[in-house]
Structure formats: structure tokens, C-alpha cells
Amino acid sequence: MSAPPARSPRVGVWLIGARGSVATTVVAGCAALTAGLHPPTGLVTEGPEFADSGLPALSSLVFGGHDTTDCPLPKRAEQLAAGGVLPHRLPVAVAAELAAADREITTGGPLPGDTRTAEELIAAFTEDLRGFVRRNDLTRAVVVNVASTEPVATGDDLPPSSLYAAAALRAGCPYVNFTPSTGLHHPALAEQAAAGGLPYAGRDGKTGQTLLRAALGPMFAQRALAVRAWSGTNLLGGGDGAALADPAAAAAKNAGKERVLADTLGTVPEGEVHIDDVPALGDWKTAWDHIAFDGFLGTRMVLQTTWQGCDSALAAPLVLDLARLVARAHETGRSGPLGELAFFFKDPVGTAPAALAAQYAELVEFARQLGGAR
Ligand SMILES: NC(=O)c1ccc[n+]([C@@H]2O[C@H](COP(=O)([O-])OP(=O)(O)OC[C@H]3O[C@@H](n4cnc5c(N)ncnc54)[C@H](O)[C@@H]3O)[C@@H](O)[C@H]2O)c1
Which SUPFAM superfamilies does the record match to this protein (predicted)? Predict the structure, then answer.
């Protein structure tokens, strides 16, 4: 009798904020692509440049995570479908995969009134992660932070995002911070991050207004046009809109948007970015940019752009891209900050060019190296 076929290695994706809009779209979307229900539109790593990189197949990804709410994932998917974020019939078509991921979601923290110390929380999160890897017989698990944006951290105490990042290090898991929250960037974690031997990437996914800024900023600079002012306004609802109604959380987000301009233009133009919470818009974001610039002989001109995007549909494929790339980087022995993934982030770790085209060239070279490292 012949031996049963070996099961292909399975890779875990542990989502912090696993019941949120982005996380739910990641789980439902991965199942939809695996089942061939939708083409991989928006997924960078399905392009030909990545075909020989040895990335884990979408069908090999196993999802779990932490959240502090208890809304079941299938119900969350139905809510997103009702809001037009997910295709109408998708929650039913991928009900089994949503239920499987839901069984792997554990209550995180800190919860209101939580009396556990930082060390106790890190230890609990680490144990949850190890249990996920063991139960599912995973070769590795990538931790991805897609929880609500925190206010900028001040003081010595580790914010929740850093407690989770510390747990990822302790459990030996590569880490991706898709949010502007502190995560691994806390000074108290710097030594452990450097010594951990694990690859990590972040911060804050570049999905809409900042993506456009990273493409347009270099255009103005290369054409020697003088940008006098760059102002932006964002209207959005959903959980992210509610979280960013807090000026401290919005400040964390806006710092990244402004940094992209400073890095690509070489100067900081006048102008501010505003984020308004408009609950009626749900996950649908309108981002308006007004760019005042001078041309030849000081002639004054203006470019205005209006980006109307569905936030979770923009973010979810990038989370899948990042999980695959960082898992493969870990497999090939890479460690430390992955600046080559700057293409995906507003505020990239490590050293990286600021212009989108240069970031894409670095990503493609990175993909080639991952393939060569077999
Ligand atoms: N285009 C995009 O959608 C995009 C782009 C860049 C960054 N982001 C970031 O991704 C994150 C998720 O966005 P979203 O729209 O899914 O938000 P969301 O509000 O729908 O989901 C966030 C989830 O995090 C959970 N959470 C909050 N505190 C937690 C904690 N301490 N532990 C575990 N879970 C916790 C919440 O309960 C919620 O389920 C946000 O920080 C957002 O800024 C999104």
C-alpha cells in the first residue's frame, strides 16, 4: 500500500484585531480566491514577478488571532456583505472557512478592568500563539497587527500593540504591523527585536491617499515643479473611522501621510490632513487632496484628486501579500527590519526609498532573492 501523500506545509496568519473589517475581509477573501470564486485582483504576490519566490500558497494559510470583541466572524462577514464590502453571497460560500478561523480566535487584552500585569498579558498571548501553531501543526506563523489604531504611545508602559509584538518575539513568530500603532517600535522592545533573529515589517498599510501621494510626490519633484501646499481631507466611517475620531489616534495616522510628502518632495509643504468620522459611509472612504504648485515663471496651478475606496478591500490583499512574503523571508533565514517591503507601508521600517516606483523595484528584487534562496 502506498504511503498517503505528504500534507503541504501550513503557515499560520495570526491576526491581532481578528474580528475587525480588515481581518474578516482577509479570511473571507483568501477562502474565495482559494475556491476560485474570484480572480486575485489587488494581490501583488499573484503577479508573475513572484511566481518563483517560493511563497506559501494561499490554500496553505491557516487563520487565527486575538480580539477583544466577541462578534462571531461569520456574523461580521454578513455585516460587511450588507455594507457592500464583501460580495453579497460570499459569507455563505465561505461559511466553513469563516467558522474555522472563528474557532481559532482567542480573547486578547487588556480588557476593561483587566488587572493582569504587562508580563502576564505577554505570557498569555505567547501561550495562545504557541497553542495555535501546535494545534494546527504549522511550520511557522506570522503575526499581523490589524487592531484599532492606538493613540501615540507616551511614557514607559507598553501599549497593547507592543504587548502583542513582545509575545510574537517570545513565540518566535515574524511580525507585521499594518497599523500606525507602536508595536515593535517601543524602546523597551528594541533590544529583543534586534536579538530575536526574526524578520519584521511595518508600519501602517499604504492603501489610499498615501499610496497616491507616494506616486505623485516624485512626479512633482522629477518635473521640477514647486509644490507650495498639499492639503487633504478624509471622510470615513466603520470601526477605523470611529477610532480615528480620537485626535490622538488620528495624529498617529496623519504623521505617516505627511512623512511621505517630506520624503518624496524633500521639503514639507504647507497644508494639513484631516480625518472626519462619517459613520454613514461605513468602510467606504473618500480622500480629497488639493495640491497647489508653481510651474515655469512662477505660474500658479492646482491638482485635485478624489479617491473613493473601500478600505478593507484595499487592505486585505496587502495583508495576504505581507503574510506570504514575511513567512518566506523567515523560511529563508532573513531577520530584522524588511525595508524591501516599504512599497506596502506609510512609515517603512529599515532603510528604503520613498518613491513608489523605487519601492516596487526593491520589492521585485527581494522577490527574486527569496526565490534564489531555496
Ligand atoms: N485601508 C485600510 O483599511 C487600512 C490601511 C492602513 C491601516 N489600516 C489599519 O488597520 C486597522 C484595522 O482597520 P479596520 O478597518 O479593520 O478596523 P476595525 O475597527 O474594523 O477592526 C479593529 C479590530 O481591532 C480590535 N481590537 C481593538 N483593540 C484590541 C486589542 N487590544 N486586542 C485585540 N483586538 C483589538 C477591535 O475589537 C476590532 O475588531 C486599523 O488600525 C487601521 O488604521 C487599515
Answer: Glyceraldehyde-3-phosphate dehydrogenase-like, C-terminal domain (SSF55347), NAD(P)-binding Rossmann-fold domains (SSF51735)
For 88, 165, 176, the CA distances from 333, given in Å and listed in that order, are 41, 20, 16
Closest residue by CA, ligand 1 atom 9: 179
Q: Whose CA is nearest to atom 25 of ligand 1?
A: 17
* Residues of the chain by 3-state class (helix, strand, coil), percent to 5: 45, 20, 35
Q: Which atom of ligand 1 is nearest to the CA of 178?
A: 7
Q: Are 91 and 77 in contact (CB under 8 A)?
A: yes
Residue to substitute in 27, 86, 105, 148 for testing ligand 1 pocket (most ligand atoms within 8 angstroms of CB): 148
- What are the distances in angstroms from CA 339 to CA 5, 16, 366? 38, 22, 10
Ligand 1 centroid distance, CA of 280 (Å): 18
The CATH homologous superfamily to which domain 11-205+313-372 belongs is NAD(P)-binding Rossmann-like Domain (3.40.50.720)
Atom of ligand 1 nearest to the CA of 147: 24
Cell output for 62? 491557516
Task: Give me the residue spans of the domains in the chain.
Answer: 11-205+313-372, 209-311
The C-alpha cell at 65 is 488571532
Using CA atoms of 50, 55, 61, 64 in order, give the dihedral in degrees to the nearest 10: -100
pLDDT, one tens digit per residue, over 316-360 is 999 999 999 999 999 999 999 999 999 999 999 999 999 999 999
Rounded to whole angstroms, how far apart are CA atoms 40 and 74? 22
Angstrom distances, CA of residue 222 to CA of 96, 225, 299: 51, 8, 18
Report d(CA 152, CA 19) in Å as an integer: 23
DSSP strand pairing (300-310 vs 284-294): antiparallel
What's the CATH architecture for 209-311?
2-Layer Sandwich (3.30)
Q: Ligand 1: which atom is nearest the Cα of residue 181?
A: 41
Please give all residues whose beta carbon lies within 6 A of any atom in ligand 1, as ranges: 16-17, 19-22, 66-69, 108, 146-149, 160, 178-179, 204-205, 207, 238-240, 243, 311-312, 314-315
Mutational pocket test of ligand 1: of 146, 318, 344, the residue with most ligand atoms within 8 Å of the beta carbon: 146
277-293 pLDDT per residue, tens: 999 999 899 999 999 99
